[in-house]
């Protein structure tokens, strides 16, 4: 009789623990996966709704462009001087500040070891190499 009561008490405590564990798994799943994803989606929607002409943006393909016009579902971007292309709003990955764009150009120049304003020398002579070394 005493053994069966001991088993009954042990099994009831295990059932409560299993119930708490069963309820805790969805809560942890929500806090670690769903909530951060909703936060990122909300921030992306705010950024897309705040687009206005003149803002410099980076597309999802890594192209930098200036916003020329904004529609309900699309944007017109100037990807080069005089070259405009229409994109869907979701193609805009983030808004780039002017300081960050200048910093990227300087970083690329530092990596190549050249000044940002210097160009590439192209000559049709097969004898001369760029840089003046013969």
TrEMBL record:
<keyword id="KW-1003">Cell membrane</keyword>
<dbReference type="InterPro" id="IPR003849">
    <property type="entry name" value="Preprotein_translocase_YajC"/>
</dbReference>
<keyword id="KW-0811">Translocation</keyword>
<feature type="compositionally biased region" description="Acidic residues">
    <location>
        <begin position="99"/>
        <end position="114"/>
    </location>
</feature>
<comment type="similarity">
    <text>Belongs to the YajC family.</text>
</comment>
<keyword id="KW-0813">Transport</keyword>
<dbReference type="GO" id="GO:0015031">
    <property type="term" value="P:protein transport"/>
</dbReference>
<dbReference type="Pfam" id="PF02699">
    <property type="entry name" value="YajC"/>
</dbReference>
<keyword id="KW-0472">Membrane</keyword>
<keyword id="KW-0653">Protein transport</keyword>
<dbReference type="GO" id="GO:0005886">
    <property type="term" value="C:plasma membrane"/>
</dbReference>
<feature type="compositionally biased region" description="Basic and acidic residues">
    <location>
        <begin position="122"/>
        <end position="134"/>
    </location>
</feature>
<protein>
    <submittedName>
        <fullName>Preprotein translocase, YajC subunit</fullName>
    </submittedName>
</protein>
<feature type="region of interest" description="Disordered">
    <location>
        <begin position="99"/>
        <end position="134"/>
    </location>
</feature>
<keyword id="KW-1133">Transmembrane helix</keyword>
<keyword id="KW-0812">Transmembrane</keyword>
<feature type="transmembrane region" description="Helical">
    <location>
        <begin position="15"/>
        <end position="34"/>
    </location>
</feature>
